[in-house]
């Protein structure tokens, strides 16, 4: 079995996959569509981060591909519908870099409140500017968090420990942690918060959600952070509000278009503006987070390859069973009535005894792991593969 890991994925992932006898090839950067199609020839496992786009065209050209591991939080760079149609499992790491992103956000909030980047630049230029003008403590100030998922809620806890008052807004019902207060609208949050931090996902509906109208609603001289998705924010609108003084500072870690390789040139309309912190998408880029991501996603890929387990798969129904000494039939199928009865009928007609079976459904797909005694006859496997409801069939021998 072969795996292709792109974008400088942590060596821990290479080690864990290699332990299972998987041949691993790695590259430091992302590949474009044609390069990726060529590289996936004969590859069963693909590992990516945020710069690689996995389209329907790419998946169609990779018939051997069993699973895609997104060694990051987001999966919007993957055509999940196309992966599901082909029975390709997709895994990500929804929790592993949470602390790293939160710590960067806190550091940037304090840095902007004290104008540390400007003071640092002046010192390097030989200017001694000892002044309290525009410098504030974060204690007692109001933080508004847009998106109260894993990162947003963790930031809420840490910010409150610093003495900040926390508001949050999320389109889903979320339990407030500590003394955080939920706002019923984005407008309500923007009217009260002195610092606004975005932590929403990359779903298409969020594109461009923060533009001129939203910046205008923010309190005068407030601070702004975006550590989630570059396409969420209108950067020209942010620039204009910074230059006008309405926004007192901004920290931006993600951009609508980002260089694919370390060392490539970067340009932004936000460059060279006072009290603006620009970082190269490093929110989750700590040794601790990357090692944990490598371990987590590689572990999920190992479980899927070795046992068919899909716990925490982004797109396939969740099924997990104990690994034993039986042959496993992994059957991804259309979620329609009667499939299980049909599968069991095929096995019964072939005199194959079922010793264990677990089924789960999710949306348009069903996934069943069937354990049988002894080897599965080739003609029986062919019959299951040829069922009209079958999306993908794989057999793991005892």
Question: Features of this protein?
Answer:
five-stranded parallel β-sheet, 398 residues, D-3-phosphoglycerate dehydrogenase, 3 domains, Rossmann fold, 32% helix, NAD binding, 16 strands, single chain, 13 helices, Alpha-Beta Plaits, serine biosynthesis, alpha/beta
Proportion in β-strands: 15-25%
Based on Cα principal axes, name the global outline.
elongated
Ends: how far apart? Answer: 17 Å
Number of helices: 13
What letter string, H or E per element, gives the SSE order?
A: EHEHEHEHEHHEHEEHEHEHEEHEHEEHE
Which percent bin holds the helix content?
25-40%
Describe the sheet with the most strands: 7 strands, parallel
Unreliable segments (pLDDT under 50, ≥5 consecutive)?
none
The largest beta-sheet arranges its strands as 8-7-6-9-10-11-12
In oligomeric terms, what are we looking at?
A: single chain
**CATH H level of the largest domain: which superfamily?**
NAD(P)-binding Rossmann-like Domain
E-strand count: 16
Q: What's the CATH class of the largest domain, please?
A: Alpha Beta
**And the CATH topology of the largest domain?**
Rossmann fold
GO molecular function: (S)-2-hydroxyglutarate dehydrogenase activity; NAD binding; phosphoglycerate dehydrogenase activity
Pathway: Amino-acid biosynthesis; L-serine biosynthesis; L-serine from 3-phospho-D-glycerate: step 1/3
Keywords: Amino-acid biosynthesis, NAD, Oxidoreductase, Serine biosynthesis
Domain ACT: 328-398
């Amino acid at each position: 079995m072969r795996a292709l890991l792109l974008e400088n994925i942590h060596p821990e992932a290479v080690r864990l996959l290699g332990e299972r006898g998987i041949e691993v090839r790695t590259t430091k950067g992302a590949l474009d569509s044609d390069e990726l199609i060529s590289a996936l020839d004969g590859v069963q496992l693909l590992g990516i981060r945020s710069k690689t786009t996995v389209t329907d065209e790419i998946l169609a050209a990779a018939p051997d591909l069993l699973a895609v591991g997104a060694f990051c939080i987001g999966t919007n760079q993957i055509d999940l519908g196309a992966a599901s149609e082909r029975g390709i499992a997709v895994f990500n790491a929804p929790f592993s870099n949470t602390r790293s992103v939160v710590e960067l956000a806190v550091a940037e909030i304090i840095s902007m409140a004290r104008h540390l980047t400007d003071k640092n630049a002046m010192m390097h230029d030989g200017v001694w500017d000892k002044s309290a003008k525009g410098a504030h403590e974060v204690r007692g100030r109001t933080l508004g968090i847009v998106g109260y998922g894993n990162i947003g809620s963790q930031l809420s806890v840490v910010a409150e420990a610093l003495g900040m008052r926390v508001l949050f807004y999320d389109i889903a019902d979320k339990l407030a942690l500590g003394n955080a207060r939920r706002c019923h609208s984005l407008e309500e949050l923007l009217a009260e918060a002195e610092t606004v931090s975005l932590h929403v996902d990359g779903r298409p509906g969020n594109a461009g959600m923060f533009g001129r109208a939203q910046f205008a609603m923010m309190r005068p001289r407030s601070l702004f952070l975006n550590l989630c998705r570059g396409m969420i924010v209108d950067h020209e609108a942010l620039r204009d509000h910074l230059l006008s003084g309405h926004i007192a500072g901004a920290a931006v870690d993600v951009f609508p278009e980002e260089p694919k390789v370390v060392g490539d040139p970067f340009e932004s309309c936000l460059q060279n503006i006072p009290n603006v912190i620009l970082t190269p998408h490093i929110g989750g880029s700590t040794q601790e987070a990357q090692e944990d991501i490598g371990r987590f996603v590689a572990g999920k890929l190992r479980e899927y390859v070795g046992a068919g387990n899909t716990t925490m798969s982004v797109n396939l129904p969740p099924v997990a069973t104990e690994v034993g000494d039986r042959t496993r039939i992994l059957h991804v199928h259309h979620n329609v009535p009667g499939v299980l009865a049909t599968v069991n009928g095929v096995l019964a007609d072939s005199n194959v005894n079922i010793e264990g079976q677990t089924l789960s459904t999710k949306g348009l797909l069903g996934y069943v792991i069937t354990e049988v005694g002894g080897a599965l006859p080739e003609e029986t496997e062919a019959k299951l593969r040829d069922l009209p409801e079958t999306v993908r069939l794989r057999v793991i021998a005892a």
